[in-house]
Specification:
Number of helices: 3
Organism: Chitinophaga agri
Protein name: Lipoprotein
Radius of gyration: 19 Å
Order of helices and strands: HEEEHEEEEEHE
Strand content: 25-35%
Distance between the termini: 56 Å
Structural class: alpha+beta
Number of domains: 1
Length: about 150
């Protein structure tokens, strides 16, 4: 019994001493950051033993990957577009679609409902949104590794 107790204590100490801790990063690029990293660790590579936290850049890349894999239609080629979080209210993330070259040129708007796991194009009519198809595994990764804070 003492032997098992010592072994489990040794493993616990070893695991906790190797941990880098839980650090929350926020973007310093804007006056208000709406995307945070969850404080618990998540699987980034799919390997069960390799756990890491998503950075703000990871969260932005995942959001763009979700957009690129969606059924969003635009007059512009999708590979020339980039998305960013404009705001969050309740569980609805307001996403601005912009041109990569000229970030001030807004080409569309998307609402991402985190509770319903629904993505809707509201560019033409916010009262009659177009429900978009998207890669569910990318949204799951986004929900697992990133936190969206209310801005209103």
């Amino acid at each position: 019994m003492k032997k098992w107790f010592l072994i489990s204590c040794s493993l616990s100490i070893g695991l906790f001493s190797c941990s880098e801790g839980n650090v929350t990063k926020t973007s310093s690029d804007s006056s208000h950051s709406v995307v945070d990293i969850k404080k618990d660790t998540v699987e980034k590579t799919g390997t069960p033993h390799e756990l890491t936290q998503f950075t703000t850049d990871d969260c932005n890349q995942l959001l763009n990957r979700l957009f690129q894999g969606s059924s969003f239609k635009s007059a512009f080629p999708k590979n020339e577009l980039i998305v960013s979080v404009d705001g969050v209210k309740d569980s609805i993330v307001s996403i601005q679609v912009s041109n990569k070259e000229n970030n001030s040129l807004t080409t569309g708007w998307i609402n991402l409902d985190l509770r319903k796991k629904e993505m809707a194009d509201i560019t033409n009519d916010p009262d009659a949104p177009v429900i978009l198809k998207y890669q569910k595994d990318v949204l799951d990764s986004l929900l697992t590794g990133c936190t969206f804070r209310d801005t209103e």
